[in-house]
Amino acid sequence: xxxxxxxxxDVLASVVTELKSALSLGDNQCYExxxxxxxxVIPTGGDYFVTVSLGSSSFSExxxxxxxxxxxxxxxxxxxxxxxxxxxxxxKYLFRDTTRGLLTLKKNILKALVGQDLQDTSxxxxxxxxxxxxxxxxxAPNYDYDKQIGWISVxxxxxxxxxxx
Length: 165
Hints:
The protein has a single domain (about 10-165), classed as STM4215-like, CATH 3.30.2000. Strand 5 (about 140-145) and strand 6 (about 150-165) form a beta hairpin. By secondary structure, the protein is α+β, with helices and mostly antiparallel strands. It has 3 helices and 6 strands, in the order αβββααβββ.
């Protein structure tokens, strides 16, 4: 199969679209952000929401020609949950709630993206990743007691050819 060359904007839009579809999220519940490891000042409504952040990347030396360059990048997906069901000495529900527990969010994020080949949102069935999406690392669960919001992040590796024409 011939892979289509895409821009970083195409890649980001495709990841957000894939997450929205797989997790049944709206525009206010899945969006791009610069800082993946800090809860927003004013959290969005709903049981949980997901952000997508760009990480560092590198360019393959042997894959650079006029109009095309290969980029290997990291993308961070963070699941946030506003949950306050636990007793003071336990985080049982923060971890295990079947709808918005942090470990449930982590599983759902992994299920939505691992092994996927992204498609251009404007050209259905046009795939462009050089390798299937794969998870590389995850953060420990976090909780902000002032904002009463928990979060967990998963990093994904992805590689694609830029269209730099």
